[in-house]
Amino acid sequence: MSLVEARDITLSARIGDMSVEVLRNVSFTLEAGETLGLVGESGAGKSMIGRLFSQLLPPGFAVSAGELIFDGENLITMSQTKRRRLLGKRIAFVPQEPMTALNPVLSIGSQFNEHLKRLGVRGGRARRDLAIKILSEVHLPEPELLLGKYPHQLSGGMCQRALIALAFAGDPVLVVADEPTTALDVMTQARIMALIAEMQQLHGTAMILITHDLRLAAHVCDKILVMYAGDVVERSGARDLLADPRHPYTRSLKRANPTISGPRMRLPTLPDQMPGLVEFSNLSGCRFSPRCPVNADACRAGVPAMLEIGPGHDVLCVPACASGERDISEVEAPPAPGGNGTDAPLVELKNVSRRFVTRGKWFANATTVDAVNDVSFAIGQGEFIGIVGESGSGKTTVARMIAGLDQPTEGQILVRGKDARLQTAEAKAERLETLQMIFQDPQSALNPRRMVESLLTQAMEADHRNHDAEERGGRAVDLLREIGLPGDSRRRYPSQLSGGQRQRVNIGRAICIAPKVLVADEIVSGLDVSVQAQILNLLLRLREELDISLLLISHDLSVVRYICSRVFVMHKGCVVESGPTEQVFADPQHAYTRTLLSAVPPDDADSPWPPLFSESEADVVRAF
Amino acid sequence: MLRLILAILLRRLIVVIPMLLVVSVMIFVILRLLPVDPIAMIISPTALPHEVEATRAFHGLDKPIPVQYLIWIGNVFSGDFGNAISFRVSVLNLVGETLPATIELALFALFFAVIIGFGAGLYMFHVRGTVRETVTDVFSIAMLSFPDFLWALILILLVGVQWAILPFTGRYGPEFIAPDITGFIFLDAIITADGPLLWSALGHIILPALALALAFAPLIMRVLKSSLTEVMTEDYITLARLRGISEWRILLRHALKNGVLPTLTLVGVQFGFLFGGTLLVEIIFAYPGLGNLMVRAIRNTDLPVIQMAALTYCVVVLASNTVVDVLYVVLNPKLRKE
After folding, report:
1. Could you tell me the pTM of the whole model?
2. Does the ipTM exceed 0.95?
3. pLDDT at residue A274 is higher than 90
4. Distance between CA A40 and CA A23 in Å, rounded?
5. Residues paired with residue B65 on neighbouring β-strands, in sequence order
6. Which fold, A347-587?
7. N or C: where does chain A have the smaller number of CB atoms within 10 Å of the terminal CB?
8. Do residues A592 and A621 touch, judged by C-beta distance below 8 A?
């Protein structure tokens, strides 16, 4: 008997007076010790499957058909008390946001104490000893001291380790991990995934891993379900899925994600985005068909049956499309935009350093942090440059200094050959015309009380006497076309747009007064893979049409490889390696670059990942 | 932790002294610019002009206002708060006699308000999403619109007169003579082991304290309910559920500890209003506190007493804010960074 067996589960939600099927006919099995991946973009329903185990569903959601058998018992019909007895003991959860998943006013020790008490460990001394034991199992240094600390004193990675320790404390048979590494950077992600695998081995635990990252899932899971709008569209062994995806959605998902090695293929973009819950009822037949690149008439007539195309490999598609005969053609991408090297640089950094000094408080001494240390580079006309590094490496500080939001403590920044510290009205105006910044989170960067039209042309307000309303309206129409939004979105508010559309507006706003250089800080990291591909292609198109330059700050190496011709690798405030992106990624010279690259899940399903960080590498990283 | 609390107190003290100086100047100047003459209240109607001037000079009221202020503040720094004009006793004695009574009243009121506010807040939170929520919501808004003096009148009429189960004038029964040790009647009664006095004082303080508390409690309960509702959507609450922790434990141990922080801020800010509210309530209940003294002083335009009483109110508000700051550090580990 399987540990978990889901049989044709349909989850319905009541929205207004409509009933919407949030999940349709979800079936899978999970054996003891096995790992199942649930992959898909946001809105696919993968987190809902995770929630089925606890039955902590949003109001109005209920399972309308099917059963979820855990260890011989149906979790859905089970009484609440009985189910609660399983939670934390036999079924444990690892959450998405480690920083907010621990109670901020309770010490780590008291949270462990509470959990272990519930698990039935008697005696404060015994609980303390056990807590120390499991905290050292997850490789947290000095567990005795850690018990007295509070969550805000820990890094994201350390919080996640503590939460993993909590999850495995009760020796559960099943762990449900919902995007456990999404909030963490690449290096921490690789380490946390390695840790989860290790704990799974140690305790013989089965796991359900919910993730948006197909490659990551392919490397750590035994089998994978690909979800789209509440349907399981493909079900397969993990390696098989990455090597030979069959469903058009899985194939698009794989290709929409740029690669870290091999030929650079042009990212195919799907139109629009995943439909929202309210739109589900308007979709007849296959829910993917409106966006499907290989679309057959049969798909719209009715939902295709699960098609078995190999041992343990099923696809929810019509035979003609699933066979790959009508595959989308792949085109090699043109080289990433580089400068011609002859023009004078638009922006130049000369030995720039930024030192933060925290003021000495009542009983504490002042401390200094070198956030950026002796960084020099230049951005030429039309050049796309990337800065990569872990969080805390100083890459955002560089972007802020270039945008004029912060000043270097040493060195000089030149914008079109003039010192960026010049405060004359003329110099300020010239800097604004040259440089525009695109912020990371469009949700908070766009004023929610302004319409798209006014947001897009906000930059014209700086010199409002020269632009009347009519001119602004005209410019807004041009910009909408430029960023690929329909004309009628002019009169909408940011809350009426999707995440991808908001990021488009955010970009459109930056190019309003036709600047020469865009400084973009992590502008695609919060987006779904298919939307990310749309935005990356938009940036490339803007380069072609406007001859714009871009400084992209990103922790995602594959994104940088796709659009940047030169890359700077930053570590602890220093640039440790720089050069043409292809060359740096293909033949990294610095140990840190190599470690960073090895932390990215490779495209080849057979190469092992997550890597075991060897001691020497770890030393290099630490000693630097 | 202790070091941090001391640091807060020290920092507060440094801010408080200049603040009190500014407040004292404001009170002093405003009182002297008022078109009232304190001398007129104490002098006999038949006094001759030169007698009036002599009295005025005796009290120093003939000097320019800045000079008057400097004399007064100089005396204050040497511990002399001056004499009341109409009561003919030291201002310090007057305030010292009445302040303990008002502090007792305010603390009892705070205690009742917290009990009622937290109880009702938890109940409102508990019934959220049901019909009873709407009922409690309407009820709490109605409560919110009742001022303390109205509660005082209702309580007197209902509990004091109609049912006649609690006394409603004074601080303790007329048959007792207070042992004046600390000025705090409850403390004194305990020190002298005077059970009947303690009992009588307790009976006397319930109604005025309750009047103040009933006006304050609806605020606490509404803020507590809304902050609990917000905290309950946090990730760590969801994860606690996923760990199988019981709902009661989640509420009391996880949610309340976080949800109490905004409530505490409110209590700290509002305590000043509550303390100010004692003024009217003391008059209604003939309770011999600072508020009663203040009203009598205003009636007699006794400037030294008014300014001292006003400054005392100011000090109490600053002190209560400091207590809240310290409590915040104790309850919120994020603020414990040294």
Report:
1. 0.85
2. no
3. no
4. 13
5. none
6. Rossmann fold (3.40.50)
7. N
8. yes
